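Task 17 of the worksheet. Students: predict the tertiary structure of the chain below and write it out as structure tokens. Keep your answer in the requested format; marks are given for formatting as well as content.
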Amino acid sequence: MDAELLSATFVDLADTLVAGFDVIDFLQMLTGRSVTLLAASAAGVVLADPRGELRVAAASSEAAGLIELFQLHNDQGPCLDCFRTGQPVTVMDLIEPVQRWPRFAAAARQAGFRAVQALPMRLRDQVIGTLNLFHVAPGLPGPRELGIGQALADVATIGLLHERSVRRAGAAAGELQRALNSRVVIEQAKGILAERVDVNMDEAFQLLRRLARDNNQQLTDVARHLINTPIAYLPQP
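Model answer:
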């Protein structure tokens, strides 16, 4: 494990009180770093909206995002159990009979995943979502790696709640709702980029992030611009 990257990740996850803080980019960083640091094949984050309903907030790949959506739409899967109990949920091999979530297990295997670990994003008794790690091979990392994964989820939770606490409760709830709603806009922009530049959806998202960072703008603003404004130039993958 890259100790320097791990240290930098904890700093980045704690530093949420910055100008122009972008919740979606923050969570995307969490999923990407989790994949790198924990040797996962993919990662996703689901968060509860102000009404307590889980929404997909970030995913390291299109496959992970679709599996997260499948869980929510079918109301079954490890991330839902993890959120409801506040405890980690581990599945070492999805090819074995999984009585709790038969539809999820079949869909995950079809997507190429054989193991999953759902980690609660919590502070004391407050659970705001889950960080989910997917693996293409059966088995999971050892206790040290999973402990680090839970620590990443915990620090991210503290960062999000700290950032939220500096605003009035109503404004904070509205900000989170807008962030979750912005996923729809981002998905539309990914589709436009994928078609125009002839790349897959994962590559399109990386291009979208690059556009946002190169122009010092938030992801949602760039996504809306791509949807609403004809542009002559698009970055090459």
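Marker's comment: The CA atoms of residues 119 and 211 lie 31 Å apart. The chain has two domains: 3-166, 179-228.
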